[in-house]
Design goal:
Order of helices and strands: HHHHHHHHHHHHHHHHH
Protein name: Organic solute transporter Ostalpha-domain-containing protein
Pfam family, one: Solute_trans_a
Keywords: Membrane, Transmembrane, Transmembrane helix
Helix content: 55-70%
CATH architecture of the largest domain: Up-down Bundle
CATH class of the largest domain: Mainly Alpha
Number of helices: 17
Membrane topology: Multi-pass membrane protein
Radius of gyration: 30 Å
Oligomer: single chain
Number of domains: 2
Distance between the termini: 72 Å
Strand content: under 5%
Largest sheet: none
Number of strands: 0
Subcellular location: Membrane
């Protein structure tokens, strides 16, 4: 079923997978609808529900971004479910191209696994990589009973990092090689013969995945005390369990097909049996996992009121004018409101300047529009930005500046505070 099939080159390595088959069965499944169309409707509805649920969760995190380094990783992990569901729907909707689409699920999984590892690192140290290295330099890896050999925490951390992040590039490489070998008709998903690429790619992918998962669990086990309160195991199971269930279901379908308990008939085509049913189950089971995600990766601990109560505010929140904001107000809304006001004021001033005549400008013999000075506050304290500790005047860029500053400093203000303000 490859793109480069050539029937003139005969060989004994024949793939048992049919090259062409009907998408719709001979008999309808319900009413006048074939199973393939029914499957697309049902799986598509589940996929839309998963997308909406995860999008709402990601939007809640994005609008309450009190700890960006953690929450951005949570949003990356959450993206796995809709990507998984969309990819599964594409496989059942286009069964002839399923072999090209399916391997990319592992790529999404590897990205989520890497983001989860980095999320655990953020739970340990939220400031910098240097602080993380200092933590693991003093960390003693728990050893088994009777093992007297001590393992340095920093070396162990770096080995864990390599063991986990070897999976994403290998997953991408396997997906690319799968597509190439499928197009060249040397992949053959239905065969485990050594002269087909399927068995070798499956072995390499399974070994890489097992290596990464083992390292993740080892990392969690060693740091269980430090990670207490973050429920890392619950977070891992929220997205990893669906992949494990899919693997077990693949084994189950293989057994059913090998014993002829499940085979094509007048209602189910070859594509329905091999791609439609397995991916239908995947789309169905992503729904409860999507509903569970808001509990495992809840946005509530990141509300400003919760952050203040727990004393876990980041530097952006613990400094500056955010101390005086209402409890329900967060950084994103405050900055967005300020940006809208600034843009509106700038547009108004631009329109006013355009209405001035050239005669007036020449008579004044200057390009500096003094109307901007009327809007300039005498004090810049209300523009104090958290994390800077200086007054920053985000004013306009005049053509003439009496202080002789460069255009860049005219636009953004001088960050040096003096006895007479920012100038």
């Amino acid at each position: 079923m490859g793109l480069f099939d050539d029937d003139h080159h005969g060989h004994n390595h024949t793939c048992p997978m049919p090259i062409d088959y009907a998408v719709d069965g001979e008999k309808p499944f319900i009413g006048s609808i074939s199973f393939h169309k029914f499957n697309m409707i049902l799986s598509g509805g589940c996929t839309v529900l998963v997308i909406l649920t995860v999008f709402i969760l990601m939007a809640l995190h994005a609008t309450h971004l009190s700890r960006p380094r953690e929450q951005i990783k949570i949003m990356k992990i959450s993206a796995l479910l809709p990507l998984y569901s969309i990819t599964s729907w594409l496989c059942l909707a286009f069964p002839h191209q399923a072999a090209y689409i399916d391997p990319w699920i592992s790529v999404f999984e590897s990205a989520a696994l890497g983001s989860f590892f980095l999320l655990m690192c953020e739970f340990i140290s939220t400031d910098s990589r240097t602080e993380l290295d200092l933590f693991f330099s003093a960390f003693q890896v728990p050893q088994k009973k009777g093992d007297k050999k001590r393992i340095g925490g920093l070396a162990w951390f770096r080995k864990s990092w390599i063991a986990i992040f070897q999976y994403p590039p290998i997953a991408v490489l396997i997906a690319i090689v799968t597509d190439i070998t499928e197009a060249a008709s040397v992949y053959c998903e239905e065969s485990s013969k050594p002269y087909f690429a399927h068995i070798w790619l499956m072995v390499v992918g399974s070994f890489s995945l097992t290596f990464a998962i083992t390292s993740i669990f080892g990392f969690y086990t060693a740091l269980k005390t430090e990670l207490k309160g973050h429920s890392p195991l619950l977070k891992l199971m929220a997205f990893k369990l669906i992949v494990g269930l899919s693997f077990l279901e693949t084994i189950l379908f293989t057994i059913l097909k090998s014993t002829n308990a499940l085979k094509p008939n007048s209602t189910l085509t070859y594509g329905d049996v091999n791609f439609g049913l397995p991916n239908l189950i995947v789309c169905l089971q992503t729904v409860p996992f999507a509903l569970f995600f808001p509990f495992a990766y809840s946005h509530k601990p990141y509300l400003l009121s919760c952050q203040k109560a727990s004393g876990l505010l980041t530097a952006e929140y613990s400094q500056g004018t955010y101390q005086n904001l209402p409890e329900e107000t967060d950084l994103l809304r405050y900055q967005a409101t300020g940006a809208i006001k600034f843009a509106f004021n700038m547009a108004t001033k631009a329109k006013d300047r355009q209405s001035r005549t050239d005669v007036y400008s020449r008579s004044q013999n200057t390009n500096y529009d003094m109307s901007y000075e009327s809007d300039r506050p005498s004090s810049n304290e209300h523009l104090m930005l958290p994390g800077y500790g200086q007054n920053v005047y985000a004013g306009y860029e005049p053509a003439y500046d009496p202080h002789g500053r460069s255009p860049s400093l005219q636009a953004f203000g001088d960050r040096r505070d003096g006895p007479h303000g920012p100038y």
